[in-house]
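User: For a benchmark we're assembling, each entry needs the component sequences followed by a predicted structure for the full assembly. Here are entry 17's components. Please fill in the structure.
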Amino acid sequence: MTGEPGRGRWATVAIVGLIAATAFPFYWAIVSSFTPESRLFSAPRLFPDTLVLDHYRALFTEREFWVPIRNSLVVAGTTTAFCVAVGALCAYALARLRFRGKAPLLALILAVSMFPQISVVSPLYLLLRALRLINTYPGLILPYLTFAMPLTVWLLVGIFRQLPAELEEAAMVDGASRLRTFLEVVIPLALPGLATTAILTFVYSWNEFLFALSFTLGPERQTVPVAIALLRGQYQVPWGQILAGSIIATAPVALLVLAFQRRIVQGLTAGAVKG
Amino acid sequence: MRGRPLPRGDPGYGVERREARLAWWLVSPALAAIVLVALFPLVWTVWESLHLHDLRMPWLGQPFIGLGNYLEAVGDERFRAAMGHTLFFAVVSVTLELALGTMLALAMNRAFRGRGLMRASVLVPWAMPTVVSGLLWKFMFDGDAGIANAALVKVGVLDQPLVWFIRTGFAWVPVILADVWKTTPFVALLLLAGLQNIDASLYEAARIDGASAWRQFRFVTLPLLRPAILVALIFRTLDAFRVFDLIYVMTGGGPGTSTEPIALYTFNSLLQYLRFGYGSALSVIVFVVTFALALVYIRYLGAGLTETKA
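Assistant: Structure for entry 17:
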């Protein structure tokens, strides 16, 4: 392909276009989140002359934005820890052990991962209400398992399958039990994969909106996406604060994903995909 | 799967039984969670959908009304409109995303420089909350002097600023743009993985046979890319069909209910009007349609899916 420089040109144009088109809304949101409210909608300027921290300050002093941040961290963190721990056991059995019913189980897990979330909102609401779990952390973590658990198991099955089986077999020939082999040989080998899975599960849980909107009642337990979606001003849309909140909501997942980008791309395209 | 279970008399039988028992122990916690929070609620939804259950009118109780809720849905103008909006959104956004995504993937496959930057610009929109991407695009299209209006007036596409979110029909533009912006890069990433699996010698052979670039694309790239396109198509359509976050924050289904998708109408029936029986019937319909879509795709667009999954 190096012999045809002319044909590579459109590719470069397309790539530059992609990067520009992706980056511009971010740039604009960041710039606007530092622009005084009064100037947000008066003749937008690509390169602003005054930048202020007002919106970020207001978010934390007037809106107590640390509450949704804490809620999101607790809910997404707990969901991730639980799913990776429990999902790893399940995924290892599905990847390596022989037992009847394995194929239907895998199919079930794949099917559940495709569930439209809306189709379980009504029973989950009634269930959580009966258990008095509406507007609590468990009342969010439990529903989050519907998408996080199948996702984790599905990703981890792929990861465990890719590990070389010889090391496990050697350990078992040496007399280690399956369980010990799993804990002492497989887990250390699979650590990078486990980390990738944890990040993806965290990202999905952090971003989740429908359940968090349905099963919380007030700001005490709202997660970050719900909090920014429901930010209201007295007379007008508080765009400055909404954008500042959006930047804060995006920063952790963006940083995580960028830090582990190579592995995440592999994990996502290696078969288990959830757009 | 590594072959069938051994017969009872076989010396390996005990070992195998122990392995199977361990397997079920390992699987059971995750399975229990899935049954508790996904399967059991799903059955409950179906049960609810056969009852009249209105939380605003508890004195009515929960009488069994058979398919009453479904019959109501069939005659419900707003339900049919919501299905129409969902279909419209899914077809337009997924078509754009696949077309643009294929082009981008071809470009990315050729690019040698800037791979890191490329990957970053693919991953960040995908990883950010959908709520945020919706709000960013809403902001850009909001008001008379939003950046979109300013730019379009300056370029001459518009004579005067347009109030995108108040005029029926126009509100779809920012909504679909936001969806395309967020997911096209990811589609491209999936297709890129498919492209990289294509043996380069096939192009070599095609070139020797004198095939033009278009014919190479049509007869080599496209057929071999089919499994990857299928995966992207399935996941994007299923996602588009249950669209909620984006429209909730951008238009709230408005103006009026002109952009209300089925997931939002279901949500409103449940948590705004508190009609749990009817809302559950809508939920079941969404579920059935989603499942049918997945099955149809897998059936008609190729058995290749299971192979790429393995």
